[in-house]
Amino acid sequence: MSRSxxxxxxxxxxxxxxxxxxxxxxxxxxxAIALRPEIPVEVNFRPYFLNPWVPRGGISREEYLTKxxxxxxxxSGIAQRVSxxxxxxxxxxxxxxxxxxxxxxxxxxxxxxxxKTGAQACVKQRLMDYYFTDGEDLSxxxxxxxxxxxxxxxxxxxxxxxxSETDVDEVTRQADSAKSAGIDGVPTFIFxxxxxxxxxxxxxxxxxxxxxxxxxxxxxxxxxxxxxTS
Length: 230
Description:
Layout: E1 9-15, H1 20-35, E2 41-47, E3 59-60, H2 61-69, H3 72-88, E4 100-101, H4 105-114, H5 120-133, H6 141-150, H7 155-162, H8 168-180, E5 188-191, E6 195-198, H9 203-229
Parallel strand pairs: 1-2
Antiparallel strand pairs: 1-5, 3-4, 5-6
Helix pairs in contact: 1-9, 4-5, 4-6, 5-6, 6-7
């Protein structure tokens, strides 16, 4: 493998569409990738259930905040800090618009299907924009269908799949696998299956990791190529 044609660096992002720091972390990763344009990357979004106890049909935001934080008021301070961090990245976290807390199993199913059409990043972003910025209910299948369609997916096919249990087991398996691997905080970024870091890290930090892991990957590829041709 020559230096002019390195294999893309695989970046796995373990996250949930209702995690505000995942919303921010995705944007920071995009900025990090832009800081290292010479390094080809392939990003894969893997599922995580931040709130697996939320029922499939979702619950009211008030009930969710009361159960998780003790009261709606206790979350207000956290929300202000997250909103400010989102704004710094050009994102809008409109916490006052949120009325429903969804279960994200179906959202993750749509993201899984989007990978087949190359629309995974688009669908992931659209779902988070719908939720955090527009306050839409991600437990509503039609919201998921609309997100898929806006990213070029076949809406009728997505609607049909959502009405079935297709890939429920696969998404659950992947989410459980992440927890079994010790991931207990998201977003978690995994670079080249060799290095991982959790949290919405600054773009500069992620860019440095991308560079370091890519260099190590290229060294291994060059070493393997030399061994194969010797």
